[in-house]
Structures
1.
Amino acid sequence: MLYRKYSDYLAVLNNESLKVKAQAQAWRKNFLRLKNLILIGGPDDGVITPWQSSQFGFYDEKEKVVPMREQKVYIKDIFGLRTLDKRGAIHTYTVSGVEHTTWHKNLTVFDNCIEKWLT
């Protein structure tokens, strides 16, 4: 993967680095403590590329977007993403018309995607 050439962080996060295997297990344990994982993104973000990466999608070698459930980190359950999904803890929202710098102040996003999870 191209990101391994330029980013030590992503390789570590994806459990593809020998440097921190023990740390990766702790991260997985902590990730699985989440009650709900709310993933919000949209095609008009303008900053996150591809925008689907806000929902754990990413490019393949041909720059085609591969959805979360087809990603290696999901299939192999490297850090617990599939485990969270199987227990119904992942909630994905796709919202058009919202630019990157306005997510935090968009009332429609808050009302429809965030508020009900604040308990």
Note: The two ends are 39 Å apart (CA to CA).
2.
Amino acid sequence: ILPPSPKFLTSAIPCSTTVEMGNLQQLMQVLLLLACIAVVGCSASSSPTCEEVGLKLRKRHLQGEVMDVVRTGEDEEHFVILTSKRQVYTSHDGGRSWKHVKLRAGRKNHAIFTGVSVSPVDPRTVLLSTPDRRYARSHDSGRTFRLHNGPVAFHDIRPNPNSANLWLASGFSPSCFANSRTRGSHGDDASVCKRSLYFSRDNGKSWESALHYLVDYDWGSCKECVVVSMHREQKGHQFSLNQREILVVYTQDLFNHKRQIISAALGFRHVKNHLFVAAQDPGNSDGMHLYVSRHPADPLRRVKFPKDVPQRRYSVVDVVAHQSMISVEHSDGLGDLYVLEHSETEAVAVLHKVPRDRYGHASVTPIKGLNGGYIANVVSESVSVGYAIVLGAASL
């Protein structure tokens, strides 16, 4: 909803330029108020002020742009902000005040941070990754942090959705960032560039090595279930290995036992317990197929699409009830939407020429409050047209 003019919007809330940010409920009240003003068209003189709706705003200058905001703790009072300057700020009063997190990383330097992870099971636990082997851990919603030494510089850290104690983290070996003249080719840890996966059983206090030459990973549907893709060849520099020799592996006991699901994989997605894997076509080096299973432990089934349509990339839009919505890229920036019944192997085309961005995301937006409802844009004679789609038992 857009107001008639920027001047109208500015005069609608005659607040002071200094702001103290209240809780989320107050912020939503102001947003709803703006929407109401824009629709009804009431005059600026009759509109409430920030003070009348209970919102006080205070401008706060941070080092860098805000890149990520996460809520910590068990209420709406605790937040952590990560900025583009790799700085972290915390608030424990609903955003009314912010504290700059400064951890001594040397005699003269403070630690800088590259990521924020919060356990969904115990949101009091917060982990901050850094560009080096150290990472910061908090057990009190970000009030205090302590630096720990990890096995490598963590590229990302992912908490277990079902257990507060279990975490996964991946990172690249130090030689990936060293001068190329220091790299060797004999496969030892000191000289070979590779990405490795680690896990923690004690809420991020210590880490164990799971596997090397990692491509991608995700938590599975059970407590210790993990799905990973990794290189078949386990020697040499990872980025010089054959990208067509990638395995998808599944474990149910946190890597005590591993089972290969498929070879020649191009990528996978684990969505609502369903596993989707894109793999090379054995008979065509330029072709690919999509495979799906209702659970990573179940056998994969190949999804059948129209034979005369080239398949370049897949993306899973959503899984609802007994159906999946899949976007298949057939040409640059365009693809078709298909619906797959989980009891079938042949996908049914729903819409053609749905735009896709460079990251492979289809122009499909979920309808809030309607499970299985979506709005999809379609290019028709150079004009974008919107369609409503309903999956499962949902109805408009």
Note: Residues 24-40 form the longest helix (17 residues).
3.
Amino acid sequence: EGLLLYNGGTVCKYYFYNNSAGAVCKMMGFDAAIGWRYGKIWPSVQKGYNITLMYVQCSSPDWASCSYIDKYESCVHWQDVFLTCNGTGSSVRCAAGEYLS
């Protein structure tokens, strides 16, 4: 499970559902999404980021079916998306103070 980041900030849960999770995992090179949740799960990490993606809405688990808005309006960190993907992806990166579990 990892905190989903976009352009150096977190992703808000608005319109984020299973199709969104699947599309994002596939875009990062994984096979599929295992699950997702939102919340203030890693507050010490989350507070270090701005919220940079308002929503990701997908009609299927393919990125071509998705729309998104990269602005911040009324989201707070308890709405940050955490994503779990299956397989070996190519876009996983951890910075100092972050971890994978």
Note: Strands lie at 2-3, 5-6, 9-14, 32-38, 51-58, 66-69, 81-86.
